[in-house]
Automatic annotation (TrEMBL):
Protein's name in the database: Coronin
Annotated gene: LOC118425474
Segments for region (Disordered): 407-475, 527-561
Annotated organism of origin: Branchiostoma floridae
The UniProt record lists the keyword Cytoplasm: no
Positions in coiled-coil regions: 565-592
SMART domains the UniProt entry points to: DUF1899 (SM01166), DUF1900 (SM01167), WD40 (SM00320)
Amino acid sequence: MSFRGLRTSKFRHVFGTAMRKDSHYEGIRVTRNSWDSTFCAVNPKFLAIVTEAAGGGCFLVLPIEKAGRVPNNPPMVAGHRAAVLDIQWSPFDDTIIASCSEDMTIKVWVIPEKGLEESITEPEASLESVHQRRVGFIAWHPSAHNILMSAGSDNFVVIWNVGTEEPLSLIECHTDILWSCGWNYNGTRIVTTCKDKTLRVIDPRTGDVISERKKAHDGAKPQRAVYLKDGRVFTTGFSRMSERQYALWDDNNLSEPITLEEIDTSNGVIFPFYDPDNNMVYLGGKGDSNIRYYEVTEQSPYVHYIDRFDTSDPQRGLGFMPKRGVNALQNEIARFYKLHPNKCEPISFTVPRKSELFQEDLYPDTASQVPALSADEWIEGKNADPNLMSIRDEFASVLPAKPKLAGLKKPNALNRPKLAPSKPTSTNSVRDSAPPKPAPEPTPPPPKVERSPPARERERSPPREVHRGSGDRTSVAATAQKLQQQHNAYERQEVHAREEHYARQRLYEDERARQQLYEEERIARARENARAQEKRRSRYDNPDLYQPRQQPAAPQPQIPPDFDFQELLEEVKGLRALVRQHERRIMNLEDALGIGD
């Protein structure tokens, strides 16, 4: 049975849960940089967090399973000469991470399989000499190997070949600082937002602008954009009245948004995190204490609000786990790593299900670690969607086996041959060997039952003798003992109930006594106040007892009879002329010295 107006969705009951304290990563000095970035990156093996450092930039890399308190001086990735602004793990190798910094460089690092045992200062690749100002954002290509995009404050977007450390294309169409950049699902287009409030869709190979929209959001604060799997663009920004908004766009036609909705009024920049497998968007604002999540569909209103996860502490940054790292045994569809000033807290989003089997509808095939293209193939112009993998294969050893319904070779238990009715068997051999008896004659009607004697005669009749064996006596004794135990239990319950009743009655009487005492004290205070007020009133009414204080009259100025008002007026005019003369002199001096208004 369906109800009109109720949207059917398998994600309607998604809820977020903060993991237990033993799953937190504590003792981390998270960076206090004001740059609008997430400062956290995570994959199924490692967790990377940008930390506070003096005299250079560094970030911390921890194995994902080593939760708890971090040592005082842990090994770091420290090779930048200025603060690190963004970090991103490679989608094809969980040990490769890229970082960008205020020192105008991008560096690529290789983390050992067991984690850092000592600090790393030498990168595997260094991408430099192109950006002339700080590099704020980086993003790996989703399907091509060793292709990296960077965006800097010099208004340039650069596409790099990490393997050869060479730039492939330089995009110079932006007129101001970039706020975000991102690839589409197969890496054939990129979307950027800029301080000039323009949303652009660009060809990454040629740098040509395919479509653009000026003032995608009217506010002057930073905007963010992310590509969806079906080619639409999801953006977040601010209105002219500083109200936070989200919008959905068609990348081929940015003239009007598909939908535009206001979220709330706040100052924090909203970061969108997109799950292409379930088509869900998570919004987490910097400085907020909540994470909102939406489902994007083809039906109006296109972006459906589901719920939000609230906490008491604001978030300094967020890390989003790829679908390869979620726990399918608990129906987990997303996991965030929330940054606090001195720790990192995992937050899990799950879909409640009663079945313990693998939920195929929640876990479609996701992007694998096998690249679909090499760097040279992408440079030549080839395009391909990311290779996919099954999450069920990752958990095949621990998931319960799915029952096989086909290929059963057991015989049908209901398909049995009909057998002749069998004769009743008996254990009496003499009866079995005797010839069969003739059919029994019809039984005569039952005799008429005589009425029982009156009650008095029944009372006089002697009691019937009952002969019981030893077993019967034992059962009677056990029954009597059981009845006695029940009787004792009932008595104990009755005594307990009576004691409780008396205790409640005493409490009630004590409460009534307290209330009566309080009421008597209140009445006594009221009477005392009334007597004091009556005493004051009688004192004021009696003129002999109360005399108001007389205020002394102000002395009147005495003007001598021979005072000359004309002389005083002439003196005031002279002083006024002198003041004007001094003002003119001051203005001439200010003009001569050049210090006037």
